[in-house]
Amino acid sequence: TGGSWGTGIATGALVGCFFNGIEYYKPFFSYPFMAIVLFGLPAIFAQALVFSFAWDGSQRKSWLASKFTMAIGLLIFTFFIRGSYVLFVTILFAAIAWIPRRFIFSRYNNSCSKIFMLLFDILIGELIPLLISLPLIQSDFLIPITGRSGPALNPNIAIGILMAACVAVLALNGLSTYLVSLKKIHLIIALLFSFFVLNPIIVVGFVGKVPYQTKTPMRLRIVNTDRTWYNSDRSINRSDAGYWFHPVDPDTSFYLPEFAKTVPELSEIVEIEANLNTCSDLFCSQPLVWPSGKSLKKTPWLPKAKRLPTFIKDSDQLRIHSFLVLDRTLN
């Protein structure tokens, strides 16, 4: 069971690598729930495939193995992780769904009882734990937090691992054990179809290259900057001016050429070193020192010809429109 869970997580990471390979970064950014489908569905098929090979297609052995592993995981994680109660919820409702299946539905071997047993298992053993655990795998929470991690993080792989891990745990209730009864070739076809056909259709046909929308804009700080380098005798060595970009979202540098099609000036952007551990200049010649400096390797820089004005040409006058006196007399 641990191997099947690990395979599901690895499948989620591979899906993220696949999206990186076809240069579709963060396709789930504007549609967070889509991450569960893109990464979770292949993880479920991969998990069921491992079960099928390990237990030779036996639903009973797969079900018992998954519950035993989750019980061991609950015993261990209880001492370290507060959220380990999710494992207890899945085990509890899986057992509740298993009792009528074992003592009632097993007496009837017709198609109606099998269908009813399947629906009962999905409703009690799958749906209820999913609804209880949904706040913990809330993609509307994970994706925005991951999206503010800076350019050093790969969001496709990070979200792929998180979503696949969560969905794989919930699928251990019964969905994976039901899929075990399918032929191995059918599971392989379903896995490959979800990986190489369904996901590209969703991403390429529905999202497109740029995942940002009005409700989900790119977070980018742009600072109008003058830079001056001084020698040891305080004489000026060199100076320049430009717009310094501090990317908050991952993979920002990939989208700047796309934006240059609308704003031609962005085509002149160059990347400057921002690695505080290796650069030679003080603060890597950045205008601001950020706590996330270690996560920044390169930052975009747009040169400009004119420097910032050294004085304000236009004057302004302050006028008092109203005057209010507050009575603060103490009783």
TrEMBL record:
<dbReference type="Pfam" id="PF22248">
    <property type="entry name" value="ERMP1_C"/>
</dbReference>
<feature type="transmembrane region" description="Helical">
    <location>
        <begin position="157"/>
        <end position="180"/>
    </location>
</feature>
<feature type="transmembrane region" description="Helical">
    <location>
        <begin position="28"/>
        <end position="51"/>
    </location>
</feature>
<protein>
    <recommendedName>
        <fullName>Endoplasmic reticulum metallopeptidase 1-like C-terminal domain-containing protein</fullName>
    </recommendedName>
</protein>
<keyword id="KW-1133">Transmembrane helix</keyword>
<feature type="transmembrane region" description="Helical">
    <location>
        <begin position="187"/>
        <end position="208"/>
    </location>
</feature>
<feature type="transmembrane region" description="Helical">
    <location>
        <begin position="116"/>
        <end position="137"/>
    </location>
</feature>
<feature type="domain" description="Endoplasmic reticulum metallopeptidase 1-like C-terminal">
    <location>
        <begin position="216"/>
        <end position="307"/>
    </location>
</feature>
<comment type="similarity">
    <text>Belongs to the peptidase M28 family.</text>
</comment>
<keyword id="KW-0472">Membrane</keyword>
<keyword id="KW-0812">Transmembrane</keyword>
<dbReference type="InterPro" id="IPR053973">
    <property type="entry name" value="ERMP1-like_C"/>
</dbReference>
